[in-house]
């Protein structure tokens, strides 16, 4: 007796979107970013090309969606860690440094590859800028209470973000260890707060 094939399960639009993203990450992990095309994604996902194009429009849109998913995951993990941390400078600085670096490591080497593939595209610039604004404002609210005037300068916050990105990249490439990256980012955050009352404008007569 020949068994009947199992009927295909129809996924909702959101379920299909998540399936496509998961398959895209798998392709990058197994075959590299250059292999990630919308046609190959459709083949690996068992769907037609129009289904993939309907979700992402083009390859840049797909890469941007992967970056955005990483961004959302990083934010969720960081927010959860903050909620479970005592409102003390050292504790909060440690949580920010640790969660930032660890989230990049959880994604492995795929994330730098996605960013490299998106480099110079409007999609990446918009997503990175949106994330940067959210992250710096989060840090401002967290650490401003530890400053005498309850203020942190924009330049200091952006410098801290640049350090976090650089250390994460160096860690993912194996140039430094995760422990070194976390310790350095922790020191940068604490120093940023401690220097908040020693700005040049305060020192000038």
Textual characterization of the structure:
This protein is mainly α and 205 residues long. The protein folds into 2 domains: 12-57, Homeodomain-like (Arc Repressor Mutant, subunit A); 60-196, Tetracycline Repressor, domain 2 (Orthogonal Bundle), CATH 1.10.357.10. The protein is 73% helix and 0% strand. It contains 10 helices and no strands. Helix 4 (59-83) runs parallel beside helix 7 (122-143) and helix 8 (154-172) runs antiparallel to helix 9 (178-194).
CATH superfamily label of the largest domain: Tetracycline Repressor, domain 2
Helical segment count: 10
How far apart lie the N and C ends?
Answer: 94 Å
Mean pLDDT: 86
Number of strands: 0
Give the fraction of residues assigned to helices.
Answer: over 70%
User: Within the CATH hierarchy, at the fold level, what is the topology of the largest domain?
Assistant: Tetracycline Repressor, domain 2
Q: Return the CATH class of the largest domain.
A: Mainly Alpha
The largest β sheet comes out as: none
As for the number of domains, it is 2
Spans where pLDDT lies below 50 across 5 or more residues = 1-7, 199-205
Beta-strand proportion: under 5%
What is the alpha-carbon Rg in Å?
Answer: 21 Å
* CATH architecture classification of the largest domain: Orthogonal Bundle
Overall shape: it is elongated
One letter per element, helices H and strands E, the order comes to HHHHHHHHHH
Class by SSE composition: mainly alpha
């Amino acid at each position: 007796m020949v068994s009947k094939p199992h009927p295909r399960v129809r996924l909702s639009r959101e379920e299909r979107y998540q399936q496509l993203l998961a398959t895209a990450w798998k392709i990058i992990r197994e075959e590299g970013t250059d292999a990630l095309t919308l046609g190959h994604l459709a083949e690996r996902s068992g769907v037609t090309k129009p289904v993939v194009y309907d979700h992402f429009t083009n390859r840049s849109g797909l890469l941007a969606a992967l970056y955005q998913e990483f961004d959302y995951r990083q934010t969720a993990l960081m927010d959860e860690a903050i909620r479970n941390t005592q409102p003390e400078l050292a504790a909060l600085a440690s949580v920010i440094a640790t969660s930032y670096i660890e989230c990049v490591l959880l994604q492995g080497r795929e994330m730098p590859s996605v960013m490299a593939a998106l480099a110079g595209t409007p999609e990446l610039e918009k997503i990175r800028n949106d994330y940067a604004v959210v992250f710096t404002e989060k840090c401002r609210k967290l650490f401003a209470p530890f400053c005498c005037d309850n203020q942190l300068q924009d330049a200091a916050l952006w410098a801290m973000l640049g350090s976090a990105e650089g250390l994460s990249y160096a860690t993912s490439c194996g140039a430094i260890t995760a422990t070194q990256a976390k310790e350095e980012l922790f020191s940068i955050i604490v120093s940023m707060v401690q220097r908040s009352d020693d700005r040049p404008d305060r020192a000038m007569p």
